[in-house]
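Changelog-adjacent note: as of this version, every example in the card shows the full chain rather than a window. The one below runs 322 residues end to end.
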Amino acid sequence: MNHFTKSKLYYKAMQTKYGILFLWTLIGFAATFIIYLFYSHYSLKQSQEQIRTDYIAHIQKADSLYIHWTEYNNTVMLGSQKVNNTVFRDSIIKSTLSNKYRLSRNQYDNLILVLNSHFAKIDSLHRQYSEKLLRDSLRLNTERELLEGQTKTMLELHLNKIEHEYSNITMWGAVLTILFLVFSFYSIYKMDELIQQGNEGIKEIKNLKKEGKQDLDQLKTEKEKIVTNIQGQLKDSIAAVNNTQKETERQFQDVLLNMNSVKDGLIAENKGMLEDYNKQFDSILKKNNDNLVQKQQEFNDLITQVNEILNKLNKTDSKKEE
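Full-length structure tokens:
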């Protein structure tokens, strides 16, 4: 029974130990997962901040391009104003030409020179601003395409980061799920093992109970045998004492009869012999009384020993039953 109690305490201690180990492992994984979530949130925030900064810088660059385009428009407007002024001058010249008055040769040459310079200037302005307009248009389209490409790239990077974070979270969830499954299967295995150990403990208890019952029955049988033997010995002793007592009484009666007959026969002959016979009779009577007292004392001692043995057997039975 003591071995079973020690085994039970050992299994209970081992179960508590594995439970504490599982708890600390779970706390460690939970703390690691929380730290990873905080780090992912910080990294995502930094990435979004970097994306926003780069995008704002690119927008500012595009805005500067649009500001340059505004300056270019102002320049074009000034050029258009000059062209309008020139056209106004042309109209004045045309009105002068349509006049009925004829110009002199010098005036005509000067007018042709002015017209040629005017048209040459208009052509140069058209060539200059058309090339600049084409170049700026190409730059603007290039910047727009770059802006769209960078925007798409930033969005793709952002989406890739989100997918990466989601994949990491999914991976950690899978790891935790596998961990929980492993510990669940381990708990089921330990539960089956503990159930098997409990069944073995119950079988051991039943075997111990059966052995105790057999020992108790054996002790009862031995007790009955001992009591039977003691009772037989007691009966034999009592019978022997009774026989001895009867034999003593018979001998006493015989001696008494002999003494009486001898006494009656010798009274007349010799009083001295009668006294001797009386002394012998008294000594024999005393001896028989002493033997009777000794047998009675032995019988009492035997009764006391039998009672002590019975008390010890009863105490042994009560302890076995407890």
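Structural remarks: Residues 105-266 form the longest helix (162 residues).
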